[in-house]
Amino acid sequence: MHLVRGNDLGGAAVAERAAWAQRSCRALVTLMLGVLLTGMGPSYEREVRPLLKRRCLGCHGEQPELAGGLDLRLRRTAVAGGDSGPAIEPGNAAASLLMEQVVSQAMPPGDVRKLSQEEIDLLQRWIAAGALTDDPEPNKLPPPGEPFITAADRHHWSLLPIRSVLPSKVASEAQGSTSATSGFHADAMNGLDLFIGRELREHGLSFAAPADRRTLIRRLYFDLLGLPPSPEEIERFLADDAADAWERLVDRVLASPHYGERWARHWLDVVHFGETH
């Protein structure tokens, strides 16, 4: 007879429980990893929607007549689908009609450039991760071909209300940084001066003394036109006692053809433009 001591039975049970715990931990880690990967799908607003707008909405949203009755302007309209049924099946990219069409290169139709493999992979990952959106979609959608604004669009800087970002008004009572005159008072004359004044204060500096008119017109011409003012232009400005003399001079110089010539050459240099004859 083979006898097994009680402590041997206890050891086997402990080993079995340890193996079960190990298998359970592996299963839990696998499950958690799947959840994490699902939550790491591509951003709809930053990646997927721009792709659909760029490659698909020409036929499926931006024209009054929807091709195949399919509207891809929103996630929910894509799920609802068109004449051939739902375009996407969240969580199942392989069963999604949209993926079938782009992978087979049936869409976009005709001679239009097909989606790259990178673009296809992006759509596939988004659908596999649940085809989630970043923000709630609008409840109402205008007819196809008419523009609409999403919640994400409303955060774009161009659609935000205009607000004042100017620092508080500054003035300098100290000696100018380039002038020997002491005790002068230099108020900020415009919004840019407010920012400059703030930076000067942070560095322990102050505004320079106001330049005389002859210096101002020369600075203006050289900065904007790259040319000096003529003696007649200088004398005309010096003789102009109107309160808006400086503003009118700036407008006149900005309207000069030489202003366009100077800065056109500058930007042509920036883009390394060159031509030969």
General description of the model:
This protein has helices at 6-39, 44-55, 75-80, 97-103, 117-128, 191-202, 213-224, 231-238, 245-254, 257-270, and strands spanning 171-172, 186-187. With 277 residues, the chain is mainly alpha-helical. The protein folds into 3 domains: 22-134, no CATH class; 171-202, no CATH class; 213-270, no CATH class. A two-stranded antiparallel ribbon has the order 1-2. The longest helix has 34 residues, at 6-39. The model is unreliable at 1-9, 29-38 and 172-185 (pLDDT under 50).
Task: Sum up the structure in keywords.
single chain, 277 residues, mainly alpha, 3 domains, two-stranded antiparallel sheet, 46% helix, elongated, disordered N terminus
Layout: helices, strands, pairs:
Layout: H1 6-39, H2 44-55, H3 75-80, H4 97-103, H5 117-128, E1 171-172, E2 186-187, H6 191-202, H7 213-224, H8 231-238, H9 245-254, H10 257-270
Antiparallel strand pairs: 1-2
Helix pairs in contact: 2-5, 7-9
Can you give me a brief rundown of this structure?
The protein has helices spanning 6-39, 44-55, 75-80, 97-103, 117-128, 191-202, 213-224, 231-238, 245-254, 257-270; strands at residues 171-172, 186-187. It is an all-alpha fold.
**Could you state the order of secondary-structure elements as H and E?**
HHHHHEEHHHHH
Q: Roughly how many Å apart are the termini?
A: 109 Å
- The helix content, as a percent range, equals 40-55%
Unreliable sequence segments = 1-9, 29-38, 172-185
Quaternary form: single chain
Numbering strands along the chain, what is their spatial order in the largest sheet?
1-2
Strand count, sense and barrel status of the largest sheet are: 2 strands, antiparallel
Number of domains: 3
Number of helices: 10
Q: Over the alpha carbons, how many angstroms does the gyration radius reach? A: 35 Å
Arithmetic mean pLDDT: 80
